[in-house]
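#lab-general

N.A. 3:47 PM
ok so I finally got the sequence cleaned up, no stray characters, all 194 residues accounted for. can someone with queue access submit it? mine expired

B.Y. 3:52 PM
send it over

N.A. 3:53 PM
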Amino acid sequence: MTLDELCGRRVAIWGTGVEGRGMARLLLERSVIPTLVDDSAGGGARVQVTSDAELAVLAPGAVDWDRVDVVVRSPGVSRYRDELAAAARAGTVVTTAMALWLDDARGGPVLAVTGTKGKSTTASMAASVLEHEGLSVELVGNIGRPVTDLYGRPPADAVVVEVSSYQAADATVSPRVTVLTGLAPDHLDWHGGG
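B.Y. 4:20 PM
back already:
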């Protein structure tokens, strides 16, 4: 699913951090008003999404999940949450900003770096090598700059994206070039393993 395919759908964004606000901004630019969801939302909570747009934030229990077509969850929100599992059973698409961006960037000059340890170092080194070769490079993803920042920018010669397992869990498209630094049993609690 691409970002443009969200247009005309009822979208909830679960998580109001940098990536969630970035996704909300992108949807507002496309005339889609998302429902914002956050575990820390209290009565009357609101989040500034753009300089002129502030949106209400609901707690997960206050959302009518039957009225949501797509949930874009932030990486820290486990895809195994009961609310997301129920929404998925009811036909709601559960995805992430990373999964949407990977679909939009399909076939592009993308180098993805994933694995348990060493992702940031490897991604930073790869970006540095590519820049040293004279390429314009964007370094994004789990490293601290969300992929939502790339929409609307001039295309770079290469994009190096650090992908955490939390971000990769809902991805359906993989870049042509991917580096796996290694695997270890970290984060099994989040992924439901033991």
